[in-house]
Amino acid sequence: MDIRKHIRGETMIQTIFENVKSAPDSGHLASYIPALANQSKDLFAACLVDGKGEVLEFGDIDYLFTLQSISKVMSFIVAAEHLGVDRILEKVDVEPTGDPFNSIVRLEVAEKGKPFNPMINAGAITVASLLPGETVELRVNAVREYLSKITGHEHYVNQEVYKSELETAYRNRAIANYLKANDYLVGTVEEALETYLQLCSLEVSTQDLSKFGLFLSSDGKFANDNKNLISRKTAQFSKALMMTCGLYNASGKYAATIGFPMKSGVSGGVLCTVHNGELENLNGHIGIAVFSPMIDEIGNSVKGMDFLKKLSDQYKLSVF
Ligand code: GLN
């Protein structure tokens, strides 16, 4: 079945959305900071944007949520474009861990304590310290500006979320100290931590994320012009990292069952990028994003993943 007809006609995708929405609740809200614990559990949004810039949206599309771990993709891209992928790889590997995102254990067992990949906290804190700019503010702005080029508007740090993140960052601070002890961080531990946590606290809508997914799908091209914003190599590494490490220690399962690059965050968002030859009329490109704050034990949005699985099955979106 051609998804293009439905990105216009929308009935089938609407039905999938409604079915997932009305399914019984499961999972829990992220509870480690009040701003996330107080989100309404019923929020649910999905957005698809195709290669012609046509948008299909469902549910609570105006709701802004914080990127959390999804910011790891943007940080990697901006740092890789600044220094080149190879320089980043000197400080961070590209191997999945099978461990939770905030795990410390591999830093002790890895050769020279090198973080395994940029999609876990250890790797992302390292990458945050490699962003362009001498100060936390400049580094955060580099990512904000990048994001704005793709979404077409400004993005702000949610100060309430950031403040709570910083106050409760015991584990992340331990990881950052460990990284500093092994010489992976540029600048101070606090600078790397503040940069990382401000990026986690950047606000986006579901549509913003779907535009980012489309942008990645087309290797850095906009929907409406052919200007490339990232190198092929950065795009290739970003998508490979999302596919192999983007859904924490459930990445392998979802690569097998859904089969396109995705990155989730504990606030309940999922960024997806689809490039599938079967979608010929769209030049094969779609950006998809979902948001629903009830997450499973691993940290992935329950309804979000359910919607994506049904969509992938219905339209054969897996790359495999
Ligand atoms: N701010 C959270 C942390 O660093 C982000 C976690 C996430 O989305 N997995 O622990």
UniProtKB/TrEMBL annotation:
Pfam family, one: Glutaminase
GO molecular function, one term: glutaminase activity
GO BP, one annotated term: L-glutamine catabolic process
Keyword Hydrolase assigned: yes
EC number: 3.5.1.2
Catalytic activity: L-glutamine + H2O = L-glutamate + NH4(+)
Entry keywords, A to Z: Acetylation, Hydrolase
Enzyme class: hydrolase
Residue numbers binding substrate: 69, 121, 165, 172, 196, 248, 266
Subunit: Homotetramer.
NCBIfam families: Gln_ase
Family under the similarity heading: Belongs to the glutaminase family.
Protein name per UniProt: Glutaminase
Species the sequence originates in: Ureibacillus manganicus DSM 26584
Designated gene of the protein: glsA
